[in-house]
Specification:
The chain is mainly alpha-helical. The protein is built from 9 helices and 5 strands. The chain has a 3-stranded mixed beta sheet with strand order 1-3-2, covered by helices on one side. Strand 4 and strand 5 form a beta hairpin. Helix 3 (60-80) packs parallel to helix 7. The model is unreliable at 1-7 (pLDDT under 50).
């Protein structure tokens, strides 16, 4: 992690992959919090992946896991009725996390109770997911994207509309 000027107080990682990094760091410094720029999961320790910056926040580990599991479930299972990489490769056992849950609809208390493993295991899962999903997305045609599929809780919509909904829901 690349540290920003130190403020007295806890250290919080700021994901430095999008804009407003300086503004976020300045806002946190104004609250007495030191920040460090995080560019990759590799930059994090197990403690940082599981850190809860305040009582109502989720960990970085939860956010990464939730987005990856959502991509895995939607592209593999919902769209093509194939087993998600999470199950196919036994990541649920390797992470010691729920087999089916992906965070959607999970209570804040349950989400904050999850503990995530070494960043290397995350990197392995994300790599396996990338190997499956990148070619799958590249092969999507207009006709494929126009076909309706059922995705709970959103109902039946075209695949393209579901992708839009997931993007809106996950920023």
């Amino acid at each position: 992690m690349t540290s920003e000027p130190m403020a007295p107080g806890p250290l919080v990682g700021v994901l430095a992959l999008q804009g407003d990094v300086r503004e976020h760091a300045a806002m946190l410094a104004g609250c007495g919090v030191s920040t460090a720029r995080v560019r990759s999961i590799e930059d994090l320790s197990v403690e940082e992946l599981n850190h809860l910056p305040h009582a109502e926040a989720n960990s970085i580990g939860f956010d990464i896991w939730h987005v990856a599991r959502t991509i895995d479930n939607v592209l593999c299972f919902v769209f093509d009725r194939e087993q998600p990489i999470w199950l196919r490769d036994g990541y649920h056992d390797r992470f010691a996390l729920p087999k089916v849950a992906q965070g959607t609809g999970m209570s804040g208390e349950d989400a904050r109770a999850l503990r995530f493993p070494d960043p290397a295991l995350f990197i392995a899962y994300l790599g396996a997911l990338r190997e499956v999903c990148v070619p799958r997305v590249a092969a999507m045609t207009e006709a494929y994207l126009a076909e309706p599929v059922l995705l709970k809780p959103w109902g039946e919509r075209s695949r393209l509309e579901h992708i839009g909904q997931v993007l809106i829901a996950h920023g």
